[in-house]
Amino acid sequence: FKKYFEIKVFPLKTIQNYLCVMHDVTERKLADQMREDFVANFSHEVRTPLTILNGQTQTLKILLEKNKEFDAEYKPIFEKLDNNSRRLLSLFNDLLRLTSVEKRKDLFKEEIHIEPIIEGLAEELKINYPLKSIRFTYDFRAPILYVDYNLFEQVMINLIDNAYKYLGALGNVSITTSIVGENSMLEITDDGMGIPEDQLHRIFERFFRVDASRSSEVAGTGLGLSIVKHIVQKHDGKIKVSSKFSKGTTFTILFPNKK
Ligand code: ADP
User: Fold this and answer.
1) C-alpha–C-alpha distance, residues 242 and 196, integer Å
2) Ligand 1 pocket, 166 CB below 6 A?
3) Distances (CA, A) of 18 to 5, 15, 22, 43, 161
4) DSSP-assigned letter for residue 221
5) Most buried in the list 71, 91, 180, 259, measured by CB within 10 Å?
6) What are the DSSP calls for 166-217, one per residue?
């Protein structure tokens, strides 16, 4: 059976040699794999019946709306059913996305033109926020990124969707890219509610949502940013966030360029 080792190499200046330390991490690796497999299988199994429940609830809701008498009495019940089954479904969808990124061994990196992807997503996601008027501006000085198309799209969906979610009725989002040394830097800045300084360091943790009271008003699973971070790390990239409470937030990502 397979064994996993972590190898650390330390240069020894005095004797112009190297010290190599091997650490057996097989147990930890196997435990991680079992957890990932379990979450992936479980999410997959739950998602199918949940999708059916969701569809049936929608159908029942439409049928009830046609019958005025029933509608008044049952509407609140169906709204709760609808909201909660949607929440569960998005939770399991996010869990599946997270585990599938964790388990991914190889990326299909290619040079992609990001402008149509990003502008298209901003337009598409707008449909979910019909009452908001958000102005997007773009400046793509690095118009081509070397990334896995599907995973990059997931990063942008999560970040743009968060910008919509955590901006008020009116707001601005700027998305820029530039070349920084051997990397391409992507920045997405909004002038929304921002993130309190004392919570900023936890923002990429699984299930973490800023301040329960404000999060309960906006639907979410607390998994979006940890999916983003995993994807960036799979690309050997880096992500950081800076934010001023009630002023806005900037996410900065570095993707290595093609060598
Ligand atoms: P979700 O949005 O599902 O709660 P995320 O992992 O995407 O989960 O984000 C974690 C938390 O970070 C959110 O609950 C929100 O409080 C905060 N957050 C993320 N993006 C922004 C943003 N652009 N502006 C303000 N807060 C944000």
Assistant:
1) 10
2) yes
3) 18, 9, 13, 46, 48
4) -
5) 91
6) TS-SEEEEEEEEEEETTEEEEEEEE-SS---GGGGGGTTSTT--S-HHHHTT
Compute the distance between CA of residue 59 and CA of residue 225 in angstroms, rounded to an integer.
33
pLDDT for 175 beyond 70: yes
Q: Say if CB 223 and CB 203 are below 8 A apart.
A: no
Encode pLDDT of 60-116 as tens digits: 888 888 887 777 788 888 888 888 888 899 999 999 999 999 888 889 999 999 999
* Atom of ligand 1 at shortest range from CA of 223: 6
∠ CA 47-51-52, nearest 5°, is: 125
User: Is the CB of 225 inside a 6 Å radius of any atom of ligand 1?
Assistant: yes
Q: Tokens 């497999």 identify what position?
A: 37
Strand partners of residue 248 = 244
- Ligand 1 atom closest to residue 210's alpha carbon, by position in its atom list: 16
Nearest alpha-carbon partner for 256 in 150, 185, 154: 185
